[in-house]
Amino acid sequence: MNRLEKASVGAVALMLLAGAAIFFYAPTDFLQGPVQRIFYLHVSSAIAAYGCFAVVLLGGAIFLRTENYAADRWARAGALVGVVFTTVTLVMGMLWAKKVWGAFWVWDARLTSTLVLWIIYAGYLLVRRLSEPGRQAARLAAVVGIFGFVDVPVVHFSVTWWVTHHPGPVIINDALPAQMLATFLFTMFCTIVLAAVMITIRYRIETLMDMKQLIAGPVHVVITREPGGVAGPVQ
Amino acid sequence: MNPFRAAIAVARKDLVSEWRTREMVPALAQFVVLALLIGNFGFQIDSRNAPSIAPGILWLALVFAGLIAFGRTFAAEREQSSLEAMLMTPASPVAIFAGKAIAASVLLILCEVVMLPALSLFFGTPFSGDLVIAVLLATIGMASLGCLFAAIVARVRARELLLPLLTLPLWIPFIVAGGQAVQSAMGLPGSYDQAIGLLIDFDILFVVLTSLAARFVLDE
Amino acid sequence: MSMVVANGLTHRFGPELALDRVDLVLDTGEHMAVLGDNGAGKTTLLRVLATALRPTSGRLEIAGLDAFRERRRLRHYIGYVAHNPGLYPALSAAENLEFFCDLQDASRSRVAEVLETLGLTSVAHRRASLLSRGMQQRLAIARAILHEPRLLIFDEPDASLDAEAAEVLGLVMKGRTAVIATHDHALANRLCPRTLVLRHGRSLGTATHLRVVR
């Protein structure tokens, strides 16, 4: 087993442990019943998704500064994994909403901004697919990734502002009991590990694909003058 | 190198070209009037519900007119392969971008000049300075973002498809705040001043960000 | 002093190798023709030399400056005419040039001079869309010399130029370093003492007299 395979097995084992904690260790919520158990993975994957998009932001910014293609590959990997976790967050959130609010979708600030997040990074992946691979694509995608990350808090803020003007459902989070908090923190840890492993694997795939496409970083060639050549001293 | 001279030259060049050919503005104006017409059929509008429906129709029409206007500005340069000639000069890409964004916003504002009176005419909603200010403020930020992404997709396949996908989510804050401002300008409850303040904040934020990013998008 | 020193210029479009380790040294005032079939990499090489395209790898110095780091400064030295004229159809010939004077930060008085040089004075106020293809090409050349560049780069300028225009080309190139991509061997021989032959992105070497080996 190579390192990535070991890491994957470890991440899956951690997720199974987290599942056990969610279903057998955490107490049942007396208001919402068993459906509240969605909360642990739902919030954890949202946080993991934000982490992935932070990787996209950092990778893009570093690429724009240094033209280092490894940074761009991390950004690509982060975007894909981030979209997966955002999808998980949205689907679980909708299931939970159906039970608690009676509808799969309500125009709550958090829901809306998560949807916008999903759309922005799905767009990021489309930009990558539709542009010729190489420096240009990496730069354009970096800009999209940076704007996406900046836009999410702005969207969240504006929708929150809008919701407070149009009364709608609001989640009121009481302080969590200690067992719930522990379960949540453990699940969050496991999910973040899973996301990190997924990004690393995806990074490896992107590297191999780049090698296949032969997109190398700039190779610095030392200037050698043609023997007996016409080149004079270059200032 | 004076960036203002370059930016003004680019904006003037685009506006003179538009004035000579008259391609975009008449088409856009016709488009927004059509959008109002479709809106009228889509909703049962009467004098009572007009103030709550008209703003929505206004923003839908404006958003799609904007996508066409901003998409065209860079697509035309691409087709004529004149963008490269411009970028081959020592003029800064940010100045060139600013010039194109200014010209595109002027074109969109010209189409708003048709749309806003048409809106009050068709739906009987009040036409006021407040309404005009709200729409203009939203136009500034939407134009800077729209032009940046139009420049991005100009280098990508399927650009007509991708431009709305990338731009619309980023326009949401403007539509939220602008929508609120227009609703209160039309007499619905809600704080007009607060919405205008938000619009100004978003304008500043995105004009600064797009100017910073323009270099990476336009430069080869 | 060398005007252009290129080392191992390589460019890929995706998996496709457009330019494969091209080395090149051009002296100041030297004129060189780039020959090759369609798809041999002529346009890519010229775009790289014009600093319009950054190669995947390799080094390029123009007038002693690193072409990728000092690109903006170098733009003052380079005049580039792409295969496509890239004019604004709704503007007149003179307006097209005036616009580029503004971008180049050059004086607008240059417009009349340049129109004169290229023999376009009589059509100065005609819209670019109404000019013949040959005249559009001349206008594109006029645009490239507005700022008195030291290095001229022409991508197939002969494609739509008439015989008389070839004379004009020689006139424009006088006193400047020039690189011309062309299919026209006769033109290459007449204007350029040196030729570079490209095939599949690779340089088959430069020669002082053209003899294409098939």
Describe the structure.
The complex is a heterotrimer of chains A (235), B (220) and C (214). Chain A has 235 residues and is mainly α. Helices cover 74% and strands 0% of the residues of chain A. Chain A has six helices and no strands. Chain B has one domain (3-218). Chain B has helices spanning 3-21, 24-42, 50-79, 82-87, 93-123, 129-153, 159-185, 192-218. Chain B is globular. Helix content of chain C is 29%, strand content 29%. Classes of the chains: A mainly alpha (235), B mainly alpha (220), C alpha/beta (214). Chains in contact: A-B, A-C, B-C. At the A-B interface, helix 4 and helix 5 of A face helix 6, helix 7 and helix 8 of B.
Structural Rg of chain A: 23 Å
Largest protein-protein interface: A-B, 29 and 30 residues
Note poorly predicted spans of chain A.
167-172, 216-235
Q: How widely separated are the two ends of chain A?
A: 55 Å
What portion of residues of chain A is helical?
over 70%
What's the structural domain tally of chain C? 2
- Helical percent range of chain C? 25-40%
Instruction: Report how far the terminal alpha carbons of chain C are from each other.
Output: 34 Å
Q: Give the oligomeric state of the chains in this entry, treating copies of one chain as homo and distinct chains as hetero.
A: heterotrimer
Q: What proportion of the residues of chain A form beta strands (DSSP E)?
A: under 5%
**Percent in strands of chain C:** 25-35%
Number of domains of chain A: 1
Number of strand segments of chain A: 0
Number of strands of chain C: 10
For the largest beta-sheet of chain A, the strand count, sense and barrel status come to: none
Query: What's the total helix number of chain A?
Result: 6
> How many whole angstroms does the radius of gyration of chain C measure?
17 Å
CATH C-level label of chain A: Mainly Alpha
CATH architecture classification name of the largest domain in chain C: 3-Layer(aba) Sandwich
**Which structural class do you get from the secondary structure elements of chain C?**
alpha/beta
CATH architecture designation of chain A: Up-down Bundle
Task: Record the SSE blueprint.
The complex is a heterotrimer of chains A (235), B (220) and C (214).
Chain A: H1 3-25, H2 38-66, H3 69-100, H4 109-130, H5 135-165, H6 178-213
Helix pairs in contact in A: 1-6, 2-3, 2-5, 2-6, 3-4, 3-5, 3-6, 4-5
Chain B: H1 3-21, H2 24-42, H3 50-79, H4 82-87, H5 93-123, H6 129-153, H7 159-185, H8 192-218
Chain C: E1 2-13, E2 16-27, E3 31-35, H1 42-49, E4 57-62, E5 65-66, H2 71-74, E6 78-81, H3 93-104, H4 110-117, H5 133-144, E7 151-155, H6 163-173, E8 177-181, H7 185-191, E9 194-199, E10 202-207
